[in-house]
Design goal:
The protein is built from six helices and two strands; from the N terminus they run E-E-H-H-H-H-H-H. The chain is mostly helical. It is elongated and about 130 Å long. The termini are far apart.
Length: about 160
């Protein structure tokens, strides 16, 4: 037994005793009944873009305008912003409208709907349908002509004979 500086008595262990003590302490710490939840290793599927309201932008611009030389950096760090955010927001404010400070929808602009488009699509569909019918009738006429030629019947003479009877 040895005393440390605080006056506590410590026991010196041999190497084999020390390893047994360490394994006993580890077994006591990790109980088999306790289930330790693991942190979720999955990364978020998509990062979300921050959007700032016009009121927030104006408030930050007012605070930045009121700051002295070294305080602007502290403001930006505290709010998690970049200098470029301030520049863009000041430019928007100079254009003079609060609407310029509202977030804009990203991506392509929607095309205006032409009221004649629907009617055009209907007419084109009807035209395709009639063209298919016309092709069928032309094919039937060609077939009739070929059959009459094979049988040696003249279409013009059979029409005349049909009128006489």
């Amino acid at each position: 037994m040895i005393e440390n500086r605080s006056g506590k008595k410590l026991r010196i262990l041999e190497t084999s005793e020390r390893s047994r003590e360490v394994s006993k302490m580890a077994a006591e710490r990790t109980e088999p009944d306790k289930v330790v939840p693991r942190p979720n290793p999955e990364v978020a599927a998509r990062a979300t873009r921050r959007r700032f309201s016009a009121r927030y932008k104006l408030r930050i611009l007012e605070q930045a305008d009121g700051c002295e030389s070294g305080e602007v950096g502290a403001l930006l760090r505290r709010e998690g912003l970049y200098w470029s955010n301030l520049q863009a927001w000041r430019r928007q404010r100079e254009h003079g409208t609060l609407q310029a400070l509202t977030p804009r929808k990203r991506g392509r602009k929607a095309k205006p709907v032409n009221p004649l488009d629907r009617q055009l699509r209907q007419v084109q569909a009807e035209n395709r349908k009639l063209n298919r019918k016309l092709e069928k009738f032309e094919a039937m006429l060609d077939l009739q002509k070929k059959v009459s030629q094979l049988l040696g019947i003249s279409l013009a003479s059979s029409e005349e004979n049909g009128d006489e009877s």
